[in-house]
Design a protein that fits this description.
Largest sheet: none
Oligomer: single chain
Number of strands: 0
Radius of gyration: 15 Å
Structural class: mainly alpha
């Protein structure tokens, strides 16, 4: 059955921001199995990879045929992944600017998740 993904633009952003290792696409590095520790890997990287893996698994949904439900089914796990990555930045990041942005992401994405669930009604 065909699957919906927001992955193309999400992973495109990650690929643009990451250094490409020989033979391994940048996005693949962020979607390893949660907990798969690599030598020299930071806590931030480990937490971010786990968040990305959960996000990608959550976005692996069958289309319902209802654009609103499908949009929410993709965006809710996408936003939750952003929240988890922002929380990892708050735990490990040093830049005050990036920490402020991460705080805003947590608040805004939580509000948007709540609004999407409200818009879909009790079935969500």
């Amino acid at each position: 059955m065909k699957r919906l993904t927001v992955g193309a633009w999400t992973l495109g952003l990650l690929a643009a921001a990451a250094l490409v290792r020989a033979g391994e696409p940048a996005a693949a590095r962020w979607c390893r199995a949660p907990g798969a520790v690599q030598p020299g890997q930071s806590d931030f990287t480990r937490e971010s990879e786990a968040a990305m893996a959960r996000m990608m698994a959550g976005m692996d949904v069958a289309p319902s045929g209802d654009a609103d439900r499908d949009f929410a089914a993709l965006m809710i796990p996408h936003h939750q992944g952003a929240i988890e990555m922002a929380e990892a930045e708050l735990r490990h990041g040093k830049s005050e600017l990036l920490r402020r942005i991460a705080q805003e992401i947590v608040v805004e994405q939580q509000q948007e998740i709540a609004a999407m669930r409200l818009a879909l009604g009790p079935q969500q």
